[in-house]
What we know:
5-stranded parallel β-sheet, about 1100 residues, Disease_R_plants, NB-ARC, 17-stranded parallel β-sheet, alpha/beta, 31 strands
Amino acid sequence: MALSTFHLREVLETESFYFLTTDWFDPSQKFETLHYGYGKFVLLLIRFTINFHSEDDKVIDLVKQLNNSAARYLYNAHSGFFEDFCKMLVSSMKELEVFFAVPKPHLSETTSSLKTNELVVVFIDFLVGILEMILHRRIPYFTSCVKDLIEDLQTQLKFLITFLGDTLLQPTEETKSLLTDIEALVNEVASFLYSFILKPITMETGMDLAISDFLKKIELLKMKIKDHCIMVSMMQSGLPTKTSMISVFVVDSLLNDLKDLMDQKADKIGGVKDQIRTIHDDLLYFRSFLREIEMQQLPKLEQVMMRIPDTAHEIEYIVNSFAPVWYLEIRLPHVMEKIKLIRMAFEEMKKNHENGILANSPSQQVSLQAEKPLISEEIMVGFEDEAKNIKEQLCGEAKQLKVISISGMSGIGKTTLAKKLYNDPSIVYHFDKRAWCVISQTYQKRNILIDILRSLNDFNRDVIINMKDELLAEEIYKSLKERRYLIVIDNIWNIEFWYDLKRFFPSDRTRSRILFTTQLKDLGQEASCHSMIYPLPFLSKAECWDLLRQKVFPKGHCPPELQEIGKQIAKNCHGLPIVVVVIAAVLANMEMKKSKWQKIERSLNSHINKDPSKCMDILELSYNYLPMHLKPCFLYLGVFQEDKEIPARKLMSLWISEGFIEKKQHKSVEIVAEEYLTDLIDRNLLIVAKKRSDGGIKACRIHDLMRDICLRIVEKENFLKVIKDQLPIHEQHRYHRLYIHSILPSSRSFGLHIRSLFFRLSDPSSFIFSSLKFLKVWDLSTTDLKFYEYIMQIKLPFNLRYMAVPCILPSIESLEKLEFLYVDNKEPAEIPDVFLDMVNLRHLYFSGSAEFSESCRLRAAKDKNLPINNLQSVSFLFISDEKDEKILRRSPHLVRLKCKFTVFWDSSKNTFRHPVFDFLNELESLSLSFQRRYVSPVYQGYSFTSFPLNLKKLTLRNFDLIWKEMTVIGRLTNLEVLKLQHGSIEKQQWNTNEDEFQTLKFLELDGVPIAQWNASSDHFPSLERLVLRKCNHLNKIPSSLGYIPNLQMIEVHGGKNSLAESARQIETEQRDLENEELKVIITRSQFLRRILDNLERHSKQQLKTIF
């Protein structure tokens, strides 16, 4: 069981501990000297000690006793208990003093797994943290001289960390002697720091002399290190065990770093500039061949090229570690020699393949991939009888609440069938309310309640997330009370979960239904006596072949020479749909040759012959056949939680920040990343969970089995480490990526080579981030804001590309390379003026909105030469000042902007006005929300007379539009998506013209009070989807819209019955014309539902008469 130090922390961290201890120590000692920071130091020492001991060790028992003593004092608040605690603490510190030194390898299982240099590194980093604490606690009492000495000592200790982390010391007498000398010096520093904090010395007595002596000894040590480096002809890297799966395109990131170093920071690299330029040119040479090698799929050349990213990481470590120039002068030639050997091996192999390897024409595989559809829809083969029977049960006459269960093994198609039924237009029309939630093996009740409520109501996301569990449950119950509802509970594993949730679903005899998907056949019977169970069978051989054929050849026929081998492959999938679709994706992405398909068939046979149930091994083939550039992208999915939707833009941002995305001319990395995402979906390794209104991917998910495959490969390839409960230091030291799910407060963050760090814990206060200087991706967004003060003090790693945090951090100005910033703020934030200089920032997101600070506006007013930045997306910005507009003019590359605005005073025109955006020539997506409550009484109204001409998507909220403005919008030549929400149109009438909305594909009217809409199919020739929500005044949809050739869906949610009937009439007319493509989805209001239920006994003719 995890060791807790909660009560001990609570006592030692409290300010009152500073005063309460005066009676329990020698009164002759100076109180401030002895006790200030004492509690913090004790905690640091205990945390460090715990890391190196198992639970049955004596020292752990000692910590438990201390924690229990602290608990007795906290719960009883009696001076006697505090006296006992203080006595035990003093006694314990004497016992813990022995551990204030470099840990010995035999100390525990943890220390035995670390090399000697790793143990020294871990302890030095601990001392750096102690020095940081001393500086933070005592700076007001130090002279500047002492303060400078302490900071210098920190710098020198950090260099020792750099050296020990970079060099794998050979087991020779000379290197053993060097390590012994380093360890002795480090222990000497530790002994002094222990005495300084815990023993009676005056504030600065001997402090400056002691540190000066340590610095002299370190200089002597550095001379030995220099001799050692010169002696070693080829230093082997001591970097942690590398993954064999690193994206070759991380070279792009390093090339940028090296160029920046040569151009902008030449003064820091002195005599090694020529060496860095040579390394830069060599990497550029390799970079020019990466894509060609991947397309040709030559394994031997791929193996040589995969040594390049590994070497790139080594170069990055050396160059960015702030080592002294003399160290770079020795170290860089060794790396250059490695690159030379790789280049020789590469050129030799290239020569052997020069007849094909450098061909300019793309391979057959690439051309075949180009013919595939962008994203294929989920195809369901089989289960026709099951689908029909379940649908009859869902729409049946039984009034009592029924539970219907779809059961079967993982990958059989339960979720696919449930989703088809959930989205069936007749099902949508039948129920007043529908909700979908997923229950994984890790039951998280709060997340499930949030998912259900978000499906049922129009609550704002932030409002729901801030609700307490009791209120969430209450709102769900109120939303469902006396209404006909369908709740789908996907992937339920335990009947106890249902018992915990069922009380939130009222049983009002309204013909409501609960639909389970589960692997447990008996779970449905346990859930309700009114349950129906539908176990899904395996697909037949014919159905497997049918599904495989449709997936591989969605628009054509299978060539005759591939049919027999194709049927054999389908047979070997053993009736499991997920295996069929994954193998189909492998086939679809290779040449359509019989020999290629036979290779797949042999691979399937080899796994089946070993163990017919080895589904996982078969599915792993889909990973093995991935192109080089997609493998790290797939493995990165292991970062995301089980059964959770993965936001597409976040995923792509992480890929870009990690350097997984190839940089191409005339194409942004965002577009390339989207191509990668689409490719993984086309290969059935990812599933589309949500689409955007423009057809793009909004969210995706990964099947449980494919996630298991991902995690299995991640572990095998050392690609990522998922840490739960404990945070062993040796685990941190051997991975580039850590996903910390939940850990003990006593654990401590460390890792010189960590590039990515993800947190899913609330308390970061036990972490010291100073050693994570190569961190590129850092997600701290789930941190509890009660640790706000601690978060604000964090010194950020300068190399960050991606950061997700709960608030803006003061040290953000140091992040010159930051490209993605996500702030999950609950309250509106102020954007400081340092953002005006962060020219590399590409995407800026605030969940709780933000506005430019007064310092930003003041600088915008005075500075005529604000730098141009590279921002491509900003959300959610509040614009309320004319200077905000000036700041936005420094972002000419904006592609997406989401903001709310109010009118402001224009000093040049001496009037109120709203912001304009027509200067943003590259803007493609604009979302505007007018804040009416801020309107000045003298304001006469606003008008939209111009928009950016390149606009493809426009959303307007809380608007009042006149015909002139609607015409301006309609004549935007690139507009594909238009959403009008909660506003009004002049005279409640909308008349469109032939020269308007010629490219519009998606139209949504939400809460728009128009009564009459006059339009024809010529007015919206490209329309594919029409969505009407709460249009309570609109009588009908223009019937001519049904004749739009590309129209695929009409959705009507609420509104008059005549509006729904007009949609049905359009559907009927199109069916008569044999147009089966158009789908109509109607959800009706609760008021109408009650009327229909009361009139259920009447005939259809009577209903027509009434309506």
